[in-house]
Amino acid sequence: MLCPYCSFNGSNVLESRDAREAKATRRRRECLGCKKRFTTYEEAGGVDLKVVKKDKRIEDYDREKLGRCLEKSCWRMSTDEREKMLDGIEMELLNWPSVEIPSKEIARMLMNRLKKIDPVAYIRFATVYLDIKDVKGFERLIKGFNGGKKSE
Question: Nearest 5°: phi and psi at 45?
Fold first, then answer.
């Protein structure tokens, strides 16, 4: 396990416990190199979800990639809150009628949750995902969020 701080390949496990409703194991670790502490999650593999990108390419679903995306938008949210949101999205993905899920549906799931929980994070994510390049596009996004009402 590489340390996220110094990339040293060695750590001690300080504590282990069930996480994500016993679907994963949360491990608190201490790097043998820099002595900083970090958390890892161990999950059983096996669900082979595929993401259909805008250009019709198909990629393997990657929880960590979605997590990084969420982290950039929701930096004020705690790690546990982000993990719960990811868990909810994954449950929705696992119940999807097909193993191939359009990326726009994953983004929709994420934006629906963000809109309710953290409107600023929603705007940050939507600005990037919807490829908003100018003030007019940003204004349309805000108007859509407010249901057409002017923001003050």
Answer: -85, -175
Cβ atoms < 10 Å from Cβ of 64: 9
User: Where in the chain are the domains?
Assistant: 1-44, 48-145
Q: Please compute the mean of the pLDDT values over residues 133-146 and round it to a whole number.
A: 84
pLDDT digits 0-9 by tens, 74-129: 888 888 888 889 988 988 998 889 999 999 999 999 999 988 888 888 888 888 88
Residues recorded for the chain: 152
Asked if 63 and 89 count as a contact pair (C-beta separation under 8 A), the reply is no
Cα distances from 82 to residues 4, 79, 108, 115, in angstroms, run 18, 5, 16, 14
How many Å separate Cα 44 from the centre of its chain?
A: 18
